[in-house]
Amino acid sequence: MDRSRTARERGRLAEEAVAEWFTARGYQQLARNYTAGKLGELDLVLEHEGTLCVVEVKARSGSAFGGPAASLTAGKLRRMRHVTLHFLQKQALMHKRVQFLAAIVQLNTQGDIMDLKVVPIYFK
pLDDT of 68-103, one tens digit each? Predict the structure, then answer.
């Protein structure tokens, strides 16, 4: 991989592309990189037609380590739920319907975005 872009830069570019993708489809951004102390962070919180959408952005180049979706571990999903509950409580939005989504961003070897897919996250 071309190291001209750091992992942080590639992640920021992927998050920006995902935010633009949702905005172009009529979603309103409520929060970006929402942090709840040691509980963790939410990449994007959006609202669309009365539903809150919590989006985890996963960007990778190639399929090493199982690709982007493989990083959505049980622990990561548990932290997402806890941070989402924190967000809902702090913003007085407990009455809202919530949908969890993963935005899978495929990068080329230079770190440019090649593909973006949004898929629902289902909890067991």
Answer: 556 678 888 999 999 999 999 999 999 999 999 999
For the chain, what is the radius of gyration of the CA atoms? Answer: 15
The model scores a pTM over 0.85: yes
Question: Which structural domains are found in the chain, ordered by start?
Answer: 7-120 (3.40.1350.10)
- Rounded Cα gap, residues 94 and 90, in angstroms: 9
When mean pLDDT is compared across 19-23, 80-84, 101-105, 110-114, the lowest value belongs to: 110-114
SS3 102: strand
Single-letter code of the amino acid located at 92: A
CB–CB of 23/29 below 8 Å?
yes
